[in-house]
Amino acid sequence: MMTSCAVSVLVLFPLIVTMSTAEPPGCRIRFTNRGLEMLKYETQKFVVEELSNITMPEMKGTQGRFQYTINEVKIHELNLTYADLAFQPGLGLLFEIQNSSISLSFQRRILYWLFYDMGETNASAEGVNIHTVLHMTKDEGGRLKISNITCDASIAKMKMKFTGTLGRVYDLLGTFLTTGMRFLLNKQICPVMNHAGLVSINSLLDTIPVRTEVDKYVGIDYSLLSDPVVTSRSLDMDFRGMFFELANENHTLVNYAVNPIVREYDRMVYLALSEYFFDSGLYSYFKAGIFQMNIANDQMPKDLEMLLRTTYFGTIFMMNPALVEYPMSLQLELTSAPKTTIKTSGATVAVTATVTVLVLPPSAAPVQLSKMTMEAKFHAKVSMKGKRLAVLTDLRRFKIFSNQSALESLALIPLQGPLKTMLQISVVPIINNWTKRGVSIPLADGLDFTEEVVEYHNGYLIIGANLYFSKGIREMIENKLQSDEENAI
Q: Ranges for the Lipid-binding serum glycoprotein N-terminal domain (predicted)?
């Protein structure tokens, strides 16, 4: 019995270790069937454009007394009787065309006995069926890619309408030519679909940010942690969702946050962000040293300066009576990275900082009067516009106290209200001016959120939205190719 238990533990140990060490996502995105419905029209348009570019080799040969040459084959129209875009569980996306037709024309040159004829012939391929599965995976760099395409195409029949002096005679040749044309056209469909997915669509997926700069201080890592999870109802992607300091990219915050859970399917897309997503950003900015501020001169409210001067008059007078007339300043510096808390009631950010009161004598070093601790809590409102995530803050709680003595903490009580007002008027607008710029989420260029709704859960938030194309798929791909060419110069 003991041996059996030991064997079971050894067998299960690698699985337990994998589960315990698996990195939770800071960002999760779910695309639903509703999103595919919107994407289907753009996909159909793109596929029609791709199939219209089919090129066919010249057909030349002899059949009985006919010598023929067929070239300059042009696709004029793809009539989609039925087309669908759906999730293929465990693989990726399925694009299917059934019972459709292709209208085309070609140039003919035919010699029959001593008669020579040339001209344009119209033809149509009917009963066109195309079954294409796009296998979607994570590549080595953590980017979403189409790694493989499974394609099956068939054409039920081909029709040609010959005109000219030998129109009736051509009927003898028609069966032979239509069989050859049907074979060649059918042979070209899957290579075109493969190129559309592996080259064109992959170039579009390259526009999704993976590891990119946010500003001159920090960057963000949106690399996929695993292959997408595809079911019949959705495609779920787990991204690292981690900010990092540009000056020290390897010094990052460890993710101990909860795993965001998306249960809904009603909207086209869902974006889930854990507390870690926001904490890693705050941590990176903290390490970059931007959470420091000096409030002096014109930034210092006159009534606050007067109150500070009154509060510390005795201290100043005992140090040097000449300092009484000099300007005063406040120096704010965070002692640790801010901490985000997300609950069903909303999101808050807790901040702990030191506030140093200084006198600024001219042509001399600042003189420190006091150093106090400030604890503040901000309400954070998260919003989306296009594909940029922004945050607006509002000061809700504020407290200052002295680490040196309880008596000094009591003396600071009159400063609580004025300092809180100063933060709301002077500091919060500066913070919001920074955070409202936002950060891009991992969506392809030209695809944006609309009609967003934010829901707060314990440990994470979810933004449900619909999608719209600000550009067509073809335009997005061409813009990407143009950008690559410009960057190569």
A: 30-248
